[in-house]
Amino acid sequence: CRWQAALGRQMGRGGLGLWCRSLLQDYADACRDVALGVKERPGKAGLYLSLLAGATICSLHVPCDASFESSLLEASGALLLLSPWVRNGTSEGHVQRLMKLRNQGRLRYQSLVFFSLVYQAPFDAEVALYQAHCKHLKPRWMDFPARTLDVGFLGRWWVLSSKMKDSDINEEEFKHLPEHLRTISSRNLHSAANEKLFEEKYKPVILTEEQIERAEKEEQQQPLQGESDQIFLHYSYSLLPRG
């Protein structure tokens, strides 16, 4: 019995070694085929590698729920620093809605490997109401796009960022202006010409010889004009009747 057990163990070891060698051989053949395919079709291989690298980068930079809460609080703080008269109504309304849902516990976060979603739930997760736990009363999947609040991709929450753009510009202040004054394009600013004029005022003034001679002549004529004015005033005063 001992000899049979030893022989079985020996065969088992030999079988395991054979299985490992065949597995390594399969991997080597697969790597060889991949290298041959890359050599034959470099464009296709480059496209696959680019897609793989892009997917890896996206998955590594998926924002988490803590980053959304931090971005939301930062946006709320930025609006609080602004006067109510200059706040953008769209930015303030969106942030106020998110803050209300956050305080009610109705914000949900879902990671989808390459991006993440923040969506709205009808109830708090700890609510014990019948409507919150009945499967027949839960929101349908067809309504999910309408409940989506933000999309996180490449470390950024895109909807919140777009809503906070120009958050310090109140569009209501300009609604009474004519249509052509409500929008300003880059051509209306003339920033390049203004900057050029602003820089030119610091340049030294260079006068030509002709300008210098003209200035000297004007300085010489000023005393003569002053003397002639005094003589004219004295003569006019002498003509006045005395009595």
TrEMBL record:
One of its GO terms (biological process) is protein insertion into mitochondrial inner membrane. GO terms for molecular function: protein transporter activity. GO terms for cellular component: mitochondrial intermembrane space; TIM22 mitochondrial import inner membrane insertion complex. It comes from the Eukaryota. PANTHER family: MITOCHONDRIAL IMPORT INNER MEMBRANE TRANSLOCASE SUBUNIT TIM29. This is Translocase of inner mitochondrial membrane 29. It comes from Chelonoidis abingdonii (Abingdon island giant tortoise). The lineage of its organism: Eukaryota, Metazoa, Chordata, Craniata, Vertebrata.
